[in-house]
Structures are given as C-alpha cells and as structure tokens.
Amino acid sequence: MSRYLYLYLCPRVKLSNIFTMLEYAYRLKSFRILDGMVECDSLQEFYERLAMILAGMILNRNRQGLYREYREQVDKLPYIRGQLNIRHQLVKPWEVGFSCHYQEHTADIEDNQILTWTLNRILYSGLCSDRGLPVIKKAYRSLLSQTSLIPLDPGRFSSRVYSRLNQDYRPLHALCRFFLEQCGPGYEVGDHSMIPFLVDMPRLFELFVAQWLRTYLPPEYEITPQERVEIGENGELTFSIDMVLYRKRDETAMCVMDTKYKSAATPTQADINQVVTYAVAKGCRDAVLIYPSSNIRPFKETIGDITVKTLAFPLAGNLEEAGKRLVEKLISNL
After folding, report:
1. I want to staple 40 with a disulfide (CB 3.0 to 4.6 A). Which of 45, 150, 308, 320 is the partner?
2. Count of CB atoms within 10 A of residue 313's CB?
3. Ordered alpha helix ranges (H), the chain
4. What confidence tens digit (pLDDT) does each residue in 264-291 have?
C-alpha cells in the first residue's frame, strides 16, 4: 500500500472550497484561520496544513491550561489522603500503606483524551512531512504527559455538551472529528506499508449542504438532517432521510431532500424512486435531489402526488453565490 490521502472528487472541486465545506459541515464558523491556509500543491499538503492548525490550537490551549475535572480515585497510598477505608485496613492490617478514597483534579478526561488520540492517528498516518511533524509532535508530547491514550469513537463527538469553562474545545473537537471520521482503509499499488486515509466526500457534501441550509434558510423554516423513519408496526423497515425541511409554525414537513455526490446530467431512476419513497413516508408533496455540479439538467416531474425536482450546488465556483441560488430556488419551488 502507498501513502495517500484519498478524496473522491467526482465533480470538479476547488481545494479552497473543500476548506469552506469543512467549515460549514463541522460548524467551524469561528475557525477563521482556515482563510489563510488554502494554497496547497497536493492533497497530502492539505492534510498536513490542517493537522498543523489543530496542533497549534492545542499548544495554545495547553499554554492557557487544559480543562480539568475532579474525579473519584481509590488507591493505596503511603499517606492518608481524602477518606481512609477503615474496613479494608482492619481486614488486612498487615498491608503497608493506606487504602484511600479521594478526589483528584486531573486533566486526564475525555475532553483532552480526544485531542491525544487524534494527534496519535495523525502521526501514525505518515502523511506529514518534516515541516509539520515538529509542531505536531510537540503538541502530542504536551498532551501525553497529562492524559491517557485511549481509542475514541468520533460518533460520540456530536452530542457533547460544553460549558463556559470548555467552550473553546468545540472547534478543537470538530477538527478531531473530521480527522477520525475520514480515517479508513483503502488499497492502492505501491512500495510502502502505511495506514491510508479516506476522505468521504459524499458524506462531507451532505453535511455541508445541511449546515448551509440551516444557516441561510429564512427563519420560518428549519432543517432536520438524517431523520429516521420506521415503516411497519415493529419498524421492520427503516429509512434515513438526508434532510427534511419543516415549516416551524405548524411543524409541517414541506419537502424531503437527498444529496447525490455525482457528476450526472439527469437523475437516475434509482435516485427518483428513493426520494419519492422518502416523500411518501413523510407525507409531503415535494422531493428535491441536490447535485454538486451544474451539469445536472433541470428536472421537474410529478409522480402521483409527489413533485420531484433537481437542484445544483456547484462546488467548482463561488460557494457563496451557488449557495444563495440554491436557497432561492428551493424556497421558490415549494
């Protein structure tokens, strides 16, 4: 296997637009340092620069002091700390030391373990050069001296709760989620053994469009991404709809939307069947297929009571303009 960072770029995508997609998809609106990091000659450099940004943010947080919490500890100590376990001492009086229950103010908590595990995966990827490795290793060593190295599932990151004490961890964890979610197996002929990475562009496109619509839709509408719909008395059949657009005042489902990361001129029959099924399941009359290329031809057909339309969110040009056109067409067609 060779060392690669895989990005499935079916339509033509500007590298700078990938940063913008990441910014929206992973809710990094306050992460403005991304604006100056878009001139990359290769995908490996793109990965390395993003890793250096993360390492720099971690070093900055470490200088300010890592977030800590009090944790219950039970240990045998040469001195008394906290509460002494009298029963244990009476049962085993010959043992040297004291069995104590105490609280420790520690940085070895999940907030910081996420950072440690992510930097570990970045270092073992083999995708960073001598330019980026020193700062990444420095950040990793600063964490490893205070935290445990524990494998963590990035699926848990989205439900984390933040307080005023650890609010600045939110963009850090968002970046960590990106690195860990896009780390996966892939194979290519080569002469090196290494862990390859897969950046799931269809999933990134879906997250990006959902967050864009959440940001720019008129206030009377709201978006629910990845809505699960169960069919049958016991939920024998389950659908996961990319996005459902609701009208807030009466919580009416206005339309279902499905993103298709493919460069196509017309929607396939499978695409249409899928989105019509979603619309029937939600009881709405509009279904929209969203493609990342302007190559898609305008399509509007009524199937039974369901009107199916195609919309484009082209990634090759100006995302701000393309996103505004998408919102305008979506609302005007409802």
Report:
1. 45
2. 22
3. 15-25, 43-64, 86-91, 110-125, 133-144, 169-181, 201-216, 269-282, 319-332
4. 888 999 999 999 999 999 999 999 999 9
